[in-house]
Amino acid sequence: MITELAQFDHPGLLYTTRQEYLRGTTGFVRSAVAAGDPVLVAVPGPNLSALRDALADVGAAVTFADMAADGRNPGRIIPGVLLAFAARHAGRRVSIIGEPIWPGRSDVEYPACAAHEAMINAVFAGRDAAILCPYDASGLDRPRLHDAWRTHPVMIVGGARRPSPWYGDPYRTAENFNQPLPDVPDRAGVWRYTQPSDLAAIRRFVSARALAAGLSADRADDLTLAANELAENTLRHTGSGGRLSVWLEPGLLVCQIDDHGHLADPLAGRIPPPAKTEGGRGLILAHELCDLVRIHARPDGTSIRVHIRL
Amino acid sequence: MDWTIAREDDTLVLSPEGDLDVANAAVLREVLQQIVDRRDCTRLDIDMSAVTFLDSSALGVLVAARRAADAKGITLRVREPGPMVRMVLEVTNLYESLVTG
């Protein structure tokens, strides 16, 4: 009897036209459906509509998700989209189209997106899964397209698979995207904290700013909880306190935590703990609730910036 | 953290009030542990209707208490979560195991 080893396949698909996009993605979906695999298509809005139409005949066997919503925060994609789908089909090979990077991704969002692509390789190593990542080669700039070659072991170009000569160790690659954040603006409201009893004041401060910015009560709660968790991590993992800043940018409310800890693990906050495990949910909550979580980790300090869209 | 405890036949109902966070998670843990150790109920309900905030530390205490209660044959359930508490339970995928499970 031949035992097949679980194999993870993570190709990047470079496409320049809608036709090329559909050829590469629908072929992947149809062979997965024919093999009886659960299939998830998580791509941003316009591509999602096109794929739904093109796959109408097998649509009942496919789960569709709008990556621009579910994967708006790239740090949420591994726990909330990919692992969540795999967990719903435990014990089976899953086939997924995941398009986390599109031309509208901002310079602040992008390093988190690329780090996410690198970490997929570490999280899914040894798992029986295929994740195809389409990249818009006509809309994305050259550095971002080059990054796709660094985060995917195999690339599909003009319909042909090629091993990537630039693919490397996912942790080392992710470290390349561990980049400094833009400065906190002078206009930011700032609150310092040093002990657990300070957190109630942190929550009141963030909640007031969020409501004043016009967020709904629910979204204000989301940001307040996320900020509380990040500040709590400072107190749990560092010997000192931290500084929380809040400010408005066009279309966004931004909150940043700066402390003297070193968040060394790029997988932190990406792997949901089992239901019976007590700890390990703080950073995951921030990832789930915010529209972006950008982390800059240094040996002598960590900065975590979160966005909530207005 | 303020709380009340009421008995309804074989069920104890613990009703914490206000914000449950890392600053009072230790108190919550102790209260729950004492109830579970006493073993004089078959069911322990945690009524969350007066809880205004729940963080991951206090949530972790509930998860640990659920496990400890299971081991002593006590059915522990969280009930009547308000919108904020419900959101935390749902986002962490614990609603099912703690509320309906």
Description:
The complex is a heterodimer of chains A (310) and B (101). In chain A, 38% of the residues lie in helices and 24% in strands. Chain A has helices at 18-34, 45-54, 67-70, 77-88, 110-124, 142-151, 170-176, 199-212, 217-237, 282-289, and strands at residues 8-9, 11-15, 39-43, 62-66, 94-98, 129-136, 154-157, 160-163, 189-193, 242-249, 252-259, 292-298, 301-309. In chain A, strands 1, 2, 3, 4, 5, 6, 7 and 8 form an eight-stranded mixed beta sheet that branches. In chain A, strand 7 and strand 8 (160-163) form a beta hairpin. The N and C termini of chain A lie far apart (58 Å). Chain B has four helices and five strands; from the N terminus they run E-E-H-E-E-H-E-H-H. In chain B, strands 1, 2, 3, 4 and 5 form a five-stranded mixed beta sheet that branches. Chain B is globular. The mean pLDDT of chain B is 96. Chains A and B meet through helix 8, helix 9 and helix 10 of A and helix 2 and helix 3 of B.
How large a portion of the residues of chain B is in β-strands, by DSSP E?
A: 25-35%
Broad shape of chain B = globular
Report the biggest beta sheet of chain B as strand number plus sense, adding barrel if it closes. 5 strands, mixed
Instruction: Give the % helix of chain A.
Output: 25-40%
Task: Determine the number of helices of chain A (DSSP H or I, runs of at least 4 residues).
Answer: 10
SS class of chain A: alpha/beta
Cα Rg of chain A: 20 Å
In the predicted model, the low-confidence regions of chain B spanning at least 5 consecutive residues are none
Defining key terms:
heterodimer; A: alpha/beta; eight-stranded mixed sheet; five-stranded antiparallel sheet; 13 strands; 24% strand; elongated; B: alpha/beta; 4 helices; globular
